[in-house]
TrEMBL record:
Gene3D superfamilies: 3.30.1490.190, Winged helix-like DNA-binding domain superfamily/Winged helix DNA-binding domain (1.10.10.10). It comes from Modicisalibacter zincidurans. It is found in: Cytoplasm. The keyword Glycoprotein does not apply. Keywords: Cytoplasm, DNA-binding, Iron, Metal-binding, Repressor, Transcription, Transcription regulation, Zinc. Its main location: cytoplasm. This is Ferric uptake regulation protein. Belongs to the Fur family. It comes from the Bacteria. Homodimer. It holds the Pfam family FUR.
Length: 151
């Protein structure tokens, strides 16, 4: 996963190219999410943001999150109700998330053939997909190698 500075600079360029505003609050929320490899819940973000911006309220965080998701900079982890940075926001196709249940690490996959098969099958059934979330919960390689008592 690229570091926070790299992802933030990439987000800034992408927003500039698209003609959308990358405000200081949006930037700060993205930085906080980038710094947490396992993702952050909205209220954890609010607590961290309120420490820097006293006027921060839930709508502030949710508006920033909605923007970041819309721009493909952040993904919502449905099963955890948390948010994780997208390591490659220029990639606008389907994605899958690997989530370690021990350490919380999240890795992103881009198996286009899986997304294509789901889209094709859905279309044949007359179903319009608005959003696709594929999350695989398991144990990452580092946690598998760790002694059981340290997990």
């Amino acid at each position: 996963m690229p570091d926070t500075q790299t992802l933030t600079q990439q987000a800034e360029r992408q927003c500039h190219q698209r003609g959308v505003r990358f405000t200081p609050i949006r930037r700060r929320v993205l930085e906080m999410i980038c710094a947490s490899p396992g993702g952050l819940k909205a209220y954890d973000l609010l607590d961290k943001l309120a420490a820097v911006h006293a006027a921060a309220r839930p709508p502030t965080v949710y508006r920033a999150l909605d923007f970041l998701i819309e721009q493909g900079l952040v993904h919502r982890i449905e099963s955890l109700n948390a948010y994780v940075a997208c390591p490659c926001p220029e990639y606008r196709h389907g994605f899958q998330l690997l989530i370690c249940r021990d350490c919380g690490r999240v890795e992103e996959l881009h198996l286009d053939e899986v997304s294509a098969q789901l889209s094709q099958r859905s279309a044949r059934l007359g179903f319009r997909v608005d959003r696709q979330t594929i999350e695989l919960l398991g144990i990452c390689d580092a946690c598998q190698l760790a002694p059981a008592e340290s997990r």
